[in-house]
Amino acid sequence: MLTAAVTALTRTDDIAGVVLVGGSLTLLSWLVTPLWLGGVLFVSPTLAVAAPLGLAPALVARGYFVRVTRGAIQDGDAARAPSLVAWGELFRDGVKSVLLSAALLAPLAGGFAVLFGAAYAATVAGPVDPGVTATAVESALGPNGPAAVAAVGAVVLAAFVGAYLLAFAYLRPAALAAFAASGRLRDGLSPRTVADVAVTGPYATAWTLGVGALAVGYAVAAPTAPLVVGVALAFLVRIVAHGLYGRGAAGALTSGPAKSIGGPTAVGAARKAAATPTTRGTGAARESAATPETVTARGAGAARGTGETRDLGGTRDSGVTRNPDTKRSPPTQGMSGDGGRPMRSEPPSGVQVGRAVPIGDDGEGDADKKADSRDGTDSDGGTGPDDGPSPDGGFEWGPPLDDAEDKS
Predict the structure, then answer these.
(1) Cα–Cα distance list, 376 to 294, 330, 372 (Å)
(2) Bias category Basic and acidic residues: which stretches (predicted)?
């Protein structure tokens, strides 16, 4: 698991771009974000309107870590680090990652607010007199009584906060993995889903390895941070950690109770939906698409100009049916981070970074067309040239347009 997570970056198509851009984003997040926050707190609150700019580097980097986790969940040990492209999607995932962390820390913040609010109401605005209370405690416990009570209260509070933060550190990667698998923030906030991931042995092992990798990586990166090398190393260490989180959570998110969140299951559903043939035609032909039937072969002589007709609204019967299993499935759609909805596949990283320029149509379409031309079949399953699309978005099954009906 650790070896696969460490070597994932070497298997990416754009390792130099990931290291350079990721290191730059990390450096900017360490510099720009604190400057913006200081300006809002100490210069002018109106600088809050520049939040998209001040927080953009950190949010894009966090969105990339979500993408790394998603890739590790879907592909397991064979996953490679994704390219750092499509920044709009990364920004949205980064915002959702921050909201996820804020929601998990909200109970702790709420507890502090209630505690200090109650103490303020009791001692300042309420009937409790701090001087009288301190005198009563001193008389009961001795001169050091008030200090001892304050120390015990501080220790109890610190222990509670430490336990909560430790639980947060353990559960937050599990919640991030659940969110990354489906793209829905509510899955990352589902207690049952997060618990199903957190109680598994592979996740516990992956979390321990991730914590160790972060500790060692930051210890090595800290002395070299002024040389910028440490900044890139810190970014790479976080890639390894999130790759471990995804691999550890993959088993729980692809089987068992957590399967219903729509993680890799959603990916499979999208691929199945994409591979399901769409009935083409009008009228009764659309209603009869549920049952595949045997394809009636169209011979070279019988299919051309011999009275073969098309099904238009159920009024004319051609006698030719299609087997959906013989159709080529369209390209598999990827998963976006916006609710787990399918999205169009991104161009290759080489195209997005400007190192390659696509020429003509996609390779798969050209290969299919060449294969059709070699075996004598057209793209819609016939034996002649491609009939082309029909006005209703499907294909015409009659004789080709270049065959005149009166041809002798």
Answers:
(1) 20, 21, 6
(2) 366-377
Q: State residue 285's pLDDT score.
A: 37
Average pLDDT score over residue span 174-189: 93
Q: How many residues does the chain have?
A: 408
Q: What is the pTM of this model?
A: 0.64
Maximum pairwise Cα distance, the chain: 121
- Non-local (6+) Cβ contacts of 95 within 8 A are 59, 63
Judge whether residue 358 has pLDDT over 80: no
Q: Is the pLDDT of residue 322 over 80?
A: no
Q: How far is CA 17 from CA 14, 23, 148, 239, 352, in A?
A: 5, 10, 57, 14, 11
Contact by Cβ (8 Å): 205, 1: yes
At 126-137, the pLDDT tens digits run 677 677 777 887
Q: Distance (Å, rounded) from C-alpha 189 to C-alpha 104?
A: 8
Short-list 315, 308, 263, CA closest to 285 = 315
pLDDT exceeds 80 at position 346:
no
- CA-to-CA dists, residue 158 to 154, 241, 305, angstroms: 6, 28, 88
Q: Which two tokens stand for residue 304?
A: 């051309």
Which position has the token pair 């499509």? 86
Four-point Cα dihedral 246, 238, 108, 46, nearest 10: -120
State residue 347 phi and psi, 5-degree precision.
Answer: -60, 160
Top-ranked range on mean pLDDT: pick from 165-174, 221-230, 320-329, 383-392 = 165-174
